[in-house]
Amino acid sequence: MKDEVKNVIYIVLDILDSLAKTSRETPEFIKVNENILKDIKNELFELLKNDKQKTQNTMTELIGILPTILVDKRKFPKNEDLIKFAEKSLNFKFPKGNKSRSEIIGIIIVEISKKDDNSIEVFLKALKEFLKEDSTTHEEKIRIKQKSFVDTWLEFFDRYKGDR
Would you tell me the crossing angle of helices 79-90 and 101-113 to the nearest 10 degrees? Predict the structure, then answer.
């Protein structure tokens, strides 16, 4: 859920609290059914709660599948390919210095865990679509063989973000 939507929900909750208070203090001005108001507030809180669970599931899913992809030396033959993938797809600057393949993958996973909900969701959806064999056209299959996995992914990801 976008932050703007969350903010609107919080504003609505504040308005509902104000209405309830006004209804109690000056019932001749406005009368609100407290039970209905309580139900509405509960549903709004449920939306916020479900969004948090969805985000955790998205994060868990991504952190679950990404290491398997990152350790694949056919996709990422050099450590520089991993760094390029992370910097350009996930928009973070990789720390300088010589790092082992395992350290690089670990840093990528940690950085992902710090990302906001929306960017993780977009990244995961794009990655799933990219990895599906069905979504790759014949021309893209040819290009994949001529380009590295990382370059093909970055091209796809830029197009994917542009289509949204």
Answer: 10
Any idea how long the chain is? Answer: 164
Q: How far is CA 49 from CA 36, 53, 64, 162, in A?
A: 20, 6, 22, 30
Beta carbons of 154 and 147 less than 8 angstroms apart = no
In one-letter notation, the amino acid at residue 13 is: L
pTM (2 d.p.) = 0.57
Give the pair of three-digit tokens for residue 34: 């407290």
The CA distances from residue 69 to 7, 25, 51, 66, in Å, are 36, 61, 27, 5
Is the pLDDT at 121 greater than 80? The verdict is: yes
Per-residue pLDDT reduced to its tens digit, 44-72: 888 877 766 555 677 888 888 888 889 99
Domain extents in the chain: 3-163
CA 156 to chain centre: 17
Cβ atoms within 10 A of the Cβ of 78, count?
12
Place of tokens 């959806």: 125
Q: Token pair for residue 36?
A: 């209905």
Contact by Cβ (8 Å): 108, 74: no
